[in-house]
Design goal:
This protein has 397 residues and is α/β, with parallel strands linked by helices. It contains 14 helices and 14 strands. The strands form four sheets. A seven-stranded mixed sheet has the order 2-8-7-6-5-3-4, sandwiched between helices. The chain binds pyridoxal-5'-phosphate. Pyridoxal-5'-phosphate binds next to α5.
Length: 397
Amino acid sequence: MQLSRRVMSIQPSPTLAVDAKAKSLKAAGVDVISFGVGEPDFRTPAHICEAAKQAIDAGFHGYTPADGTPELKKAVADKFQRDNGLTYATDQVIINVGGKHSSYLLMQAMLDEGDEVIVPAPYWVSYPPMVILAGGVPVVVPTREADDFKLRIDDLAKALTAKTKAIFINSPSNPTGSVYSAEELKPLAELCADKGVYIVSDEIYEPILFDGRTFVSTAALGPKIFDHTITLNGVSKAYAMTGWRIGYMGGPQPIIKACAKIQSQSTSNPTSISQKAAVAALTGPQDEVERMRVEFEKRRDYIMGRLKAIPGCSCPRPGGAFYVFPNLSAYFGKSFDGQVIKDSVELSAYLLEQSHIATVPGAAFGEDACIRFSFATSMELIAKGMDRLEDGLSKLA
Ligand SMILES: Cc1ncc(COP(=O)(O)O)c(C=O)c1O
């Protein structure tokens, strides 16, 4: 069987692969501490679970409209208005099977063969493969650690061509935790909108912000920008609901309608029960979201303190999300037991095998100097894991 060129041109998600490897080592009895997975370690709040139970008991288990229930679409439109100052009619809103599926659908709906999509690096691992699967060309634009990994306007200007259809902006960012201010984001968004380039604003880490920052939604930065932005969000990270698989988008109606058409011919609707749970998440009390945010900020402070003490390690201070992305390239070229560590893939493998900590190599995010640590794990495990990191790195000579 000759598999399609499309599927042969991508790799499975490296973050899920690291998680699978860490879980199989754990199953074999190895005490692995996982910094690999991008999923909150909290339980979904009780009132959200309760709404799902009620949905089952009430027999709410049939198909729903392919683009989501009117009730959830209204809750999403209300949320955009309330939290982001964005006015989307319900026909400008779609519910998808997770935020990952939202961006996948968008690429399928927007791209023709050879269309270019700008992907600032470090990027979320799934952006380039999604572009490729839609026949597009990811144009990776590196950013700099000294700029807190934020895109420079002159680098963006150089990357734009007549074929540029869209750009991914992800703030707070996975993997760097960097957060754009309105002043930083507006010129970039204006340039894109002026050139007719659509901005996919991935806002999935919206409520996880530190140091008193307020969230900036790209589409709120001006009317022309609004017309050229698709706002992507979901319940996975904000409400510890990764397994429920609900993402959503607001954007220009023709694009949203096109995504709904593809969804109707592929997955049909997102799970009916999860949609009821998502209504409870978006319309119910938000105090659990704040509780989790506070806990993430404490962990960010702790882990940054530990990283600072590691010789040769540098790391911008994350302004949000639950990742740190330290530059550990000072350890490349060093060796253990005669084995030279050349790059982030080998360093991450060494840390898993010798120190029993699971991390994701920066190469997976388009920045080989770094390694990603998710701090969506308990303070106790973070402390133990940082001891192991320090010890593992000190053994490299
Ligand atoms: C930047 C970013 N966008 C979107 C997603 C998708 O999340 P989900 O499909 O669980 O809603 C993730 C998950 O890791 C992410 O990190």
